[in-house]
Design goal:
The chain has a domain of about 220 residues: Serine Threonine Protein Phosphatase 5, Tetratricopeptide repeat (Alpha Horseshoe), CATH 1.25.40. Helix content is about 45%, strand content about 5%. The chain has 19 helices and 10 strands. Strands 1-5 form a two-stranded antiparallel sheet. A two-stranded antiparallel sheet has the order 2-3. The longest helix is centred in the first third of the chain and has 26 residues.
Length: about 475
């Protein structure tokens, strides 16, 4: 049986509750699901459940943040770990790599089905009043966000092949398997959901703290998360004008600000940035355990080790980049570990000292990315002075006081500066591979070898089982 049919049968049985339990495989289970989604509190529980699923190991709790995607961006290595070694070589047919992406595909579509269940319930499907408009806006935005990441992984870059094959865009909670659509059509669906979500969430601030669900909006797909995702989508589509428009909206209207250099250390160590997080996922023990085992321990053939030349990206003649000391730790044994996202309070057994109002979890969209988007768009418009202004704001907040000498830089040199900043900043967040793919960049691996861009490198094969028995 093909994957999506399995998903739709399985996820039709989920309670979608925050405790992530399951319903019995009986007609009674369907009744319970309907009952759950017949009240505001039940819908909120279902939304919390959908957010919780995002932190699964096959999704953003590991593979889509610091693990598989960042290995593919050449941030980490693990000698003797065949899965990692084949990811570094973009050998997607290796058995454990195939299994990894099959699990990612399956789990993402399962959660999309969960979100569709919420969108189809009577109170949400035609919502016109608060709080149901908020629920619908969040769910539409989240559905688009998940499809977008699947599209970026499993299809060709749309600007290179406008006729590229796409993926199924699932919009119903049913046992019917969605059909595949062209990538261009999937982008239309993504934009449609995001633009409707933007309208529905436009006045969310008016209801701030009205109920528990309207607090800690960073862990909800809020209006700024919608606009930041629109910036990503338009950027990937090559619509730089709209990408810049939405990125600037987030910068100007989100109320977020860049950190000060002295705030870098520990800012995202197992928690959402107190100034820069646009959207993240609440998580405690499960995410910490993954990060501790993968990044802190030095287990042979298992743990992820920073690339050997990691420091050279930060140690330049431009000055002291605070990210080097904040993102990496030298253990007493002399071993280098990547600790940017490791909860130091848990590690040291000092959780009582964790600052108040800290939201434990993992960051999915942060403010610096919006500055990089504006910078790249302005570079394409041949406004190097504006590019330098945007980049220098981030660089200064990271401790680099030397400003870019844009008058002496070509457009290609400026793009290289943007890429360098992205590479340093976004480690551990699963975004750099997507950026490299969007620009169809040649990849320089950890041995200094150049890997030419190609479909084999940048497009993950859709799991073969998905095509089995399709009509």
């Amino acid at each position: 049986m093909k994957i999506l049919r399995i998903i739709y049968v399985w996820s039709a049985l989920l309670t979608l509750s925050a405790c992530e339990s399951f319903l019995d495989i009986t007609p009674e289970g369907q009744v319970k699901r309907k009952e759950l989604l017949s009240s505001a509190s039940g819908i909120e529980d279902a939304m919390y459940g959908a957010y919780a699923q995002l932190r699964g190991q096959n999704l953003y709790g590991r593979e889509m943040s610091y693990s598989a995607l960042d290995v593919m961006a050449q941030y980490f290595e693990s000698y003797g770990n065949y899965k990692v070694e084949n990811l570094l070589k973009y050998n997607y047919t290796y058995s454990t790599v195939e299994t990894l992406f099959q699990g990612l595909w399956t789990d993402m579509y399962a959660n999309i089905s969960n979100v569709n269940s919420i969108l189809q319930c009577e109170l949400v499907s035609n919502a016109t009043d608060y709080p149901y408009t908020i629920y619908r806006g969040e769910a539409l935005g989240l559905r688009a966000f998940m499809h977008f990441d699947l599209l970026r992984l499993f299809t060709e870059q749309i600007t290179l092949n406008p006729e590229a094959d796409g993926i199924p865009y699932a919009t119903t909670f049913s046992l019917v398997t969605p059909q595949f659509s062209k990538a261009s059509k999937v982008y239309e669906y993504i934009l449609s959901d995001l633009l409707e979500a933007e309208k529905l969430l436009a006045n969310e601030d008016a209801y701030a703290n009205d109920r528990a669900f309207m607090t800690m909006r960073q862990i909800h797909f809020n209006i700024h998360a919608v606009r930041a995702t629109l910036a990503r989508v338009y950027m990937t589509m090559g619509n730089y004008e709209k990408a810049e428009e939405y990125a600037r909206m987030v910068i100007d209207e989100s109320g977020l600000s860049l950190l000060k250099r002295i705030e870098i250390a520990g800012d995202v160590a197992g928690c959402l940035s107190h100034k820069e997080t646009i959207f993240g996922i609440y998580s405690t023990t499960d995410f910490y355990s993954n990060v501790y085992n993968d990044l802190w321990l030095s287990t042979s053939f298992y743990s992820l080790n920073p690339r050997k030349d990691y420091a050279t990206f930060y140690e330049t003649a431009e000055g002291n980049d605070y990210r080097l000391g904040a993102y990496f730790t030298i253990q007493p044994s002399g071993t280098i570990r990547f600790t940017k996202i490791l909860d130091k309070y848990k590690l040291e057994g000092n959780e009582a000292k964790r600052p108040e109002n800290t939201i434990q979890g993992l960051n999915l969209i942060r403010l610096p990315e919006m500055y990089y988007i504006v910078a790249e768009c302005q570079n394409r418009d041949n406004h190097p002075d504006v590019v330098a202004t945007m980049l220098d704001k981030v660089r200064e907040s990271r401790g680099i006081e030397v400003k870019l000498d844009w008058e002496q830089m070509t457009s290609d040199m400026i793009q290289e500066a943007i890429d360098a900043e992205r590479y340093k900043e976004l480690i551990g967040e699963g975004q750099m591979f997507f950026h490299m793919k969007r620009l169809n960049q040649t990849i320089v691996n950890q041995n200094g070898e150049r890997i030419a861009p190609s479909r084999d490198v940048y497009v993950i094969p859709i799991p073969e089982i998905e095509y089995d028995y399709r009509n």
